[in-house]
């Protein structure tokens, strides 16, 4: 395998080494003696395309050199054959009811130096059967046949996993109909009285086809990788929530338990000591202890918002009150009547959104007013946190080290929602979370509810 690859990397024109027959060798488009090297071919193809663009806009843009090279590597890697492998003849399925026309096509291809194997089918049934076992490189189809058209054949082809390029070869169709057919996805059109161009049209259709296949493959890979990223983000958020819940439990059980015991001992000492100096130390220690208890309560609340047990509205009001107290910024919460049951996952996402938005406002907004709106009209939960501060510059949102708002986008997706950021220079910022209240994916797939350990509060 490795030695094959090394041989491949060796200059392809080197005699005795591996020869790349790539697409052209495979389809036998050019005579052996005239066949250019693969890079030459693509350069020529680019030039030819340029010429053809004049009367065929949008069919194929000239590829930049890098993209051509990349395509060449991909195609060559798939079609590398040893030096002495004869190029396989081009397999053509010809849908044609007229035997004479079929013969003319055979001759035209022969005259152009093609090595091809042509097979003719006449009826839609025959065509349907043949394309089920696809061993053709290209399909040529007359447009109008007895009782059906090439478009019916095209529809049948659409049901197959393997779809070779499909070229209309017809005399009974005008240019507008041909263009409409190509818009449907049919590879190309050639008039029957122009058979001298058939080889060229086939070559171009096959090249386009392979480019399209490569693009489809790349799109598929991209979609897969986006899905993986979204899954990973969801997993990360769930793990973070679990970790937070675990740390909060430890603070509650260990630190909370120890502080309660210290308070018990301090009050015992207070009751049994009459020494004023000792009493002074005890009351200072009790004050310190109270401070530590409040701090641990606050940390627990931030880590694990138990207030959510009382509902999202209560939790947001609690957040807002704490924020206003800490920052001195006037904060108002408007909460419409709750018309639907909000899942625990959705409430947690809304709570974390409000929390991050308020943290950002405290850090950056330089504002004196904050409004939080919470509503669930028309089966969409909407949470808006609005300030009247300095606004966010576009560059700030793409800071590489900033993860807050980016994380909120990902969080919203985990419950089937989305986040909008609306901001104007010196006219404030709105962070808006919207979540359709039909069962969210994470709820239905993973059964999240109030008792789901992932969200235990
Ligand atoms: N309400 C706001 N008003 C003004 N600027 C804001 C506001 N919210 C965010 N920003 C700007 O947008 C940037 C990105 O915010 P984001 O929450 O994504 O990251 P961060 O707060 O900087 O870091 P992190 O949240 O990861 O700790 C901030 O650095 C800040 O410059
Ligand atoms: Mg932030």
Estimate percent helicity: 40-55%
CATH superfamily of the domain at 308-457: Histidine kinase-like ATPase, C-terminal domain
So what's the overall shape? elongated
CATH architectural label of the domain at 308-457: 2-Layer Sandwich
Mean pLDDT: 79
The largest sheet is: 5 strands, parallel
CATH topology tier name of the domain at 308-457: Heat Shock Protein 90
Strand content: 5-15%
State the separation between the terminal residues, measured CA to CA: 55 Å
Oligomer: single chain
Sheet with most strands: strand arrangement:
4-3-5-8-9
Structural class: alpha/beta
**Count of runs of 4 or more consecutive helical residues:** 15
How many β-strand stretches?
14
User: What small ligands are held by the chains?
Assistant: adenosine-5'-triphosphate, magnesium ion
Helix and strand pattern: HEHHHEEHEHEEEHEHEHHHEHEEHHEEH
CATH class type of the domain at 308-457: Alpha Beta
Residue runs with pLDDT of under 50 for 5 or more positions? 1-83, 440-457
